[in-house]
Amino acid sequence: MLFDKNFESNMEAIQAELISGCYHTSEYSVFKIYDPKERDVYRLPFRDRVVHHAIMNVVGEIWVSTFISHTYACIKGRGINGVLVHLKRDLKDVENTQYCLKMDIRKFYPSIDHEILKAIVRKKIKDIRLFKLLDEIIDSAPGVPIGNYLSQFLANLYLSYFDHWMKEDKRVKYYYRYADDTT
I want to staple 144 with a disulfide (CB 3.0 to 4.6 A). Which of 4, 21, 112, 121 is the partner? Predict the structure, then answer.
């Protein structure tokens, strides 16, 4: 609501910072949640969330195009319902489904290596100014902060090469990934 009170001037200020290259991520408000398990959640002021959405408007389709078709979380038109439909269907294929393994990467978001993530980002994005902006955002917190809009996509991007390895090299027929930064 505060941002909306001076919407036009706030947007112009963000635009000027982005054009001049002097945008910096604001300080995070960090709090703990305990459901279903303890984790730190990072919250940014609204202006930073506007920047994250603007970035995703530019790179979203590029990044999503690198994901396997069975990456579900945080992708428009996919989600928990999509994975459940496919999972239920494929579990009925008794001949090709001998077992089902559900896994979670412990402390995944906090453990993401910034240098590896930046190298992955650079494989699809070629704009130097965007690199600098994304580098600054990536380096603004340890790992990838749970709670940022961009974090969900960066986490998917980070695991996308693993997903391709599972599907293409290891030939895992029924492989799905539903990563969620809130559960």
Answer: 112
